[in-house]
Amino acid sequence: MPAEGTGSDPRRQTTSARWRVLGHPAGMLIFQARCIVEDHGWTATVVEDRHKVVLGRSGAYRKWLNGRTGLADATSITLTRPGDEMAVAHPYGCGDTFTCLEIAPSVLAERPDAARWLERDGWDGSSDASLDLAHRMLVAEFRRGLDGFEATERMHRFLARLFQHSGLATGGADADVERVISRRPATLAAHRRLADRAREVLANSDFTLGLDEVAKEVGASPHHLSRVFQRMTGSSLTAYRNRLRVRAVLDTLAEPEDRPLGSLASEYGFADQAHLTRVVRAQVGHPPARLRRLLAGPETHRR
């Protein structure tokens, strides 16, 4: 379950907050916070020590970032870098909430679209309706419960969308060049081999490997592997892995041994029994308990 707490926590909030950790996929952290207003004036200036994405959810406050003062509200997005200076004030009262993503430099270094943020630029802007919905859907998925593999891929895919929206990702002519290169026969062949190699690793794993481990096994970064796999197969790595996992679960449900669903969830790398049930139902339209009755052999019915 997501952890909850109150106060100026280890994530170095610029003001006291009630916070809830939603997940911490490899090299990343996602949490939600609701500010607790103790003083309507400006907080002390804090020097950021991490790469952070702050996505507004509700309410409004004043923000001072690197010498510029402005309003932050439910549409605001701020990308900060180590060394950025930040202070906030809450003249409008209590209640503003936000989601925060923290990304390790090692994760950003493997993403070409993050180079500008990693090296020199932050970003202070706003989300459109589509990106805001993607943000809220990401939070909802984490709150429902994700295994580490899916959590990591979902975060990488959201970051790709965020960087493209912010303009920090390489665009324009460079993007056109990349698309041309990606269509070259040699590149396509290499991408097919990479996708096939990932399928091979996943098909022969026990589903406990994380996305970072699969990427390391095939010699690619998680971001690059996820993007290439989607392009070559039309499916995300998570969706493909879920298809494999559900088939393995169905095999097990058909066996005479009536194993607890919680045990199956753990064996096949699901976050918990509820996560197993959601994925199985989404794949085949029935929950595991009903599928066990439908698939059980005659020796099971005699028990």
Automatic annotation (TrEMBL):
Keywords: DNA-binding, Transcription, Transcription regulation
Location of the HTH araC/xylS-type domain: 192-294
Pfam families according to UniProt: HTH_18
Gene Ontology molecular function, alphabetical: DNA-binding transcription factor activity; sequence-specific DNA binding
UniProt keyword DNA-binding present: yes
Gene3D superfamilies (alphabetical): Homeodomain-like
Stored SMART domains: HTH_ARAC
Coiled coil: none
Protein name as catalogued: AraC-type DNA-binding protein
Organism encoding this protein: Micromonospora siamensis
